Amino acid sequence: MSDITWEENVDVQPYNTFNVPSTARWLVRVQNISNLYELVNSTRFHNTRHLILGGGSNILFSNAQFDGIILKNEIQGIKIQSEDDKHVTLRVGGGVEWASLVDYCVQNDLGGIENLSLIPGTVGAAPIQNIGAYGAELSDVLVAVEAFDLDSGQVRTIPKDECELKYRGSIFKETLKSVMICAVIIKVVKARFYSVNTDYGLIQDVLLELGVSTPTIRSLSGAICLLRRRRLPDPKSIGNAGSFFKNVVCDESIRHSIECVDTNTPFYHKPDGTSVIPAAWLIEKCGWKGRQFDNVGVSSRHALVLVNLGRAEGCEIAWLAELIMRDVQARLGLLLTPEVNIIR
């Protein structure tokens, strides 16, 4: 008897935070590794295009039809793998909501991912783009990834050093796309041995506003949640996928040429000698923040966020993204790169 169900002609609008309509030819809910073994041994799987879907928070279906199989990662579980006086190592199912994992750590006074509070999506998607926010990244706590290779039908444990983590990228986004991340192993720190990171952006201002003089893991998480809610629209109210574009990493020569255009250009300097220019600043500099076009627009809160104003189709959002990319390149000579995975 089969343990998997092939759902046909599935409306994926509820499964993407842009809230755009699209129909998948098939959808299979993956709840354990046994489901994957059965799946890869089916003729239909090998003859059909497939897409792995987590929380749908970093994806844009640009067509009305996805003529393939969506594998929806619903593998659950948060388990303590090991523990010592200072650290706790957790094994977390790929289908667990990232926000639920952060809540678990915060409630248990475990530090390391509180700066990543309220990031949408699933744990299994987190290593793909090495999620990060407010001065922290998944790479700070990652130990290893347990992945199912859809080509070979084998489970692989991939240590952090082999994940090729970088700014909003990894081996899973480049050369190892044919795996489903079944579990992520992270090492977090017990509160009494942990110092919170409040150095990034407006964190200290918000803590001061909240009357917090000695931040804890919990109070910092609360401040981050407040910051995100103020800056980013709630996908439940306005369809969006958070930051649509990556920040621009440039060398010294490009930095100097941009400074010739505007001496007030904000830069964040990296240890390797490169600089990061906030993509939001570039987009706002070109006048896109708050602009609307029928069903789509750029958020008035944050220039990096493209929004579905009600009845947008994916192709309209992709069209707007392309307009912005062309304009920024024409005006400033810099090419923006989408952070969102656009499915064509």
Structural class: alpha+beta
Using only CA atoms, what is the Rg?
Answer: 21 Å
* CATH architecture descriptor name of the largest domain: 2-Layer Sandwich
Give the integer mean of the pLDDT values. 94
Helix content estimate: 10-25%
Number of helices: 9
Q: What string, H for helix and E for strand, traces the elements in order?
A: EEHHEEEEEHEEEEEHEHHEEHEEHEEEHE
- Overall outline: globular
Tally the beta strands: 21
CATH class of the largest domain: Alpha Beta
Key structural traits:
single chain, 344 residues, alpha+beta, Uridine Diphospho-n-acetylenolpyruvylglucosamine Reductase, domain 2, Uridine Diphospho-n-acetylenolpyruvylglucosamine Reductase, domain 3, Uridine Diphospho-n-acetylenolpyruvylglucosamine Reductase, domain 1, 3 domains, 6-stranded antiparallel β-sheet, 4-stranded mixed β-sheet, 9 helices, 21 strands, globular
Topology:
Elements: E1 7-11, E2 23-30, H1 33-40, H2 43-46, E3 50-53, E4 59-61, E5 65-73, E6 78-83, E7 87-93, H3 98-107, E8 110-111, E9 132-133, E10 136-137, E11 142-149, E12 154-159, H4 171-174, E13 179-190, H5 203-209, H6 217-231, E14 239-243, E15 248-250, H7 252-261, E16 268-269, E17 275-277, H8 279-285, E18 292-293, E19 296-298, E20 305-308, H9 314-332, E21 341-343
Parallel strand pairs: 2-5, 3-5, 4-21
Antiparallel strand pairs: 1-2, 6-7, 7-13, 8-13, 9-10, 11-12, 11-13, 14-20, 15-17, 16-17, 18-19, 19-20
